[in-house]
Design brief:
Layout: H1 6-11, E1 17-19, H2 28-37, E2 41-44, H3 51-64, E3 69-74, H4 83-91, E4 96-100, H5 105-110, E5 117-122, H6 125-134, E6 138-142, E7 148-149, H7 157-167, E8 172-175, H8 181-189, E9 194-197, H9 199-202, H10 212-220, E10 226-229, E11 237-240, H11 243-253, H12 258-261, H13 267-274, H14 299-316
Parallel strand pairs: 1-9, 2-3, 3-4, 4-5, 5-6, 6-8, 8-9
Antiparallel strand pairs: 7-11, 10-11
Helix pairs in contact: 2-3, 2-14, 3-4, 8-14
Bound molecules: flavin mononucleotide.
Flavin mononucleotide (FMN) binds near residues 72 and 176.
């Protein structure tokens, strides 16, 4: 069957499936596996310590695949500098870059006279319109089911996607809550021309840095086992419920400010759980789709399964 959309055409990929940036998890192995399976893999620049480390990771990807891949920049609300990382990616010849989490204007300025394809991950219609205005090649839109950082308005993927499709003319990629061929086809029915998945890719063989405890938590969770932290800081983000996130929520309910919360929500605390498996000292991002995750396939097995599921749906409903 054909899977061509404007997303496959623009990014030169077989299936319109994009692996989301995954802080501290999306390195060369996962990125290359996704690209080799026919999707668009990404490495997450801001998890790397320096432009040199990013260069090295990009070179590793190129050794593992000759397929297109991207570099993701989650710039955060607090404006960590990233222009030097974009320069490194440019010098390494990266052809696709994605950005999320802050004002993307300087990013577009920096890439103005290049041929880099630009993706923006947004969580609201107005942000999608802004991304289009700035010159994004496609917009990824994440609903409140998703793992990691979300919009402030709690709008689900099912409602957000068609609204964004109606509001912009660039291709829309649906994200948040997608983990199998059913979610993929639902996204197309909503008008999306591709999907982005985050949580599902953590439970794959090539996501080699995720601790056993993190993977086991994803496998044993149902759809009720995630919660939204950092809401009181204006930066809501979905994580697995564990003793550490319970503590954060309790502090937030007692009006703790950023200073009081910063060690609890830090990248270090994130790594304590996702690398070391310590749920008394750290947290792990995950979306509600964790309820659908029951195994740890290779990325290639996951793609084959999703394609089969999607083909069955197309046949059943006569989608051609
Ligand atoms: C562990 C984890 C880390 C994430 N880190 C990033 C990141 O660094 N950059 C980014 O653009 N998005 C990040 N996200 C969001 C994902 O790229 C994607 O938008 C989201 O996971 C989609 O929802 P899903 O988890 O239901 O698939 C992260 C998500 C998770 C689960």
């Amino acid at each position: 069957m054909e899977w061509t959309t404007r997303v496959t055409e623009k990014f030169g990929i077989k299936y319109p499936i994009i692996q989301g940036g995954l802080a501290h998890l999306a390195y060369s192995d996962l990125c290359a596996a996704v690209s080799n399976a026919g999707g668009l893999g990404q490495i997450t620049a801001m998890s790397l310590k320096s432009p040199e480390a990013l260069r090295e990771e990009i070179r590793k990807v190129k050794q593992l695949t000759d397929q297109p891949f991207g570099v993701n920049f989650a710039i955060g609300q607090r404006g960590r500098p990233y222009a030097h990382m974009v320069d490194a990616a440019l010098e390494e010849g990266v052809e696709v870059m994605s950005i999320t989490g802050g004002n993307p204007t300087p990013f577009f300025e920096q890439l103005k006279d290049t041929n880099v394809k630009k993706l923006v991950l947004v969580a609201a219609k107005r942000q999608a319109e802004k991304a289009e205005e700035l010159g994004a090649d496609a917009v990824m839109v994440v609903g409140q089911e998703g793992g990691g950082h979300l919009g402030r308005d709690d709008i689900g993927t099912m409602v957000l996607t068609p609204q964004v499709v109606d509001a912009v003319s660039i291709p829309v990629i649906a994200s948040g809550g997608i983990g199998d061929g059913r979610g993929w086809m639902a996204a197309h029915a909503l008008g999306a021309e591709g999907i982005e998945m985050g949580t599902r890719f953590i439970a794959t063989k090539e996501c080699i840095h995720a601790s056993e405890a993190y993977i086991n938590a994803l496998l044993s969770s149902d759809e009720t086992n995630t919660t939204v932290i950092k809401r009181t800081l204006g930066a809501p983000a979905r994580a697995l419920i564990n003793p550490w996130t319970e503590k954060i929520l309790q502090m937030e309910s007692e009006n703790a400010d950023y200073e009081a919360l910063k060690d609890y929500i830090s990248g270090e605390a994130n790594q304590k759980f996702i690398y070391d498996g310590d749920d008394e000292k750290g947290y792990g991002w995950a979306g509600q789709v964790t309820g659908l995750i029951q195994d740890v396939p290779s990325v290639d097995e996951l793609f084959k399964r999703m394609v089969k599921e999607a083909e069955e749906i197309r046949e059943k409903w006569n989608f051609g």
